[in-house]
Amino acid sequence: MCQKAIYPGTFDPVTYGHIDVIKRAVRLFGQVVVAVAQNPSKNTLFSIKERVSLLREALKDVAGVEVVAFSGLFVTFARRQKAAIVIRGLRMLSDFEYEFQMALTNRKLDDSIETIFLMPSESYSYVSSKLLKEAGSLGADLGVFVPSCVEKALKKKFKAQ
């Protein structure tokens, strides 16, 4: 234990499924860097600054977690962080193909970085940020899927649109 792992993602927005994976990773590795990706090709609802802020608020009581933004090639970021473990969440079988391709690509770019797949609790296995944004835009109550700070931020975004 006490080895640094990185859990990268867009987190637009962070869900209880993400938080469940983060807590599992902390139990396994002691220290987890939650790396919020700034990807210009993705049209995110929340800015990078908002996503980092929401994650920090949602994870403020979880020891061993650091939330940072990053852009560019993940393996370069991982090297700068001196981390050799990347955490990826697998909710459903449909996630596996993409995650497997990404893990193999990262390995080809830097074979010192290992990918570990973690599954969230079955109660979160169907939750996706994309689906929640769609449901939230239609007025759904999202309190069972996301922390209250995220639910408030979503309501504010959808009210402004």
UniProtKB/TrEMBL annotation:
Pathway: Cofactor biosynthesis; coenzyme A biosynthesis; CoA from (R)-pantothenate: step 4/5. GO terms for biological process: coenzyme A biosynthetic process. The keyword Lipoprotein does not apply. Its cofactor is Mg(2+). Substrate binds at T10, K42, R88. It is an enzyme of class 2 (transferase). It comes from the Bacteria. The record marks H18 as: Transition state stabilizer. The keyword ATP-binding applies. One of its GO terms (molecular function) is pantetheine-phosphate adenylyltransferase activity. Its EC number is 2.7.7.3. InterPro entries: Cyt_trans-like, PPAT, Rossmann-like_a/b/a_fold. It is found in: Cytoplasm. Its main location: cytoplasm. HAMAP family: PPAT_bact. Belongs to the bacterial CoaD family. Homohexamer. This is Phosphopantetheine adenylyltransferase.
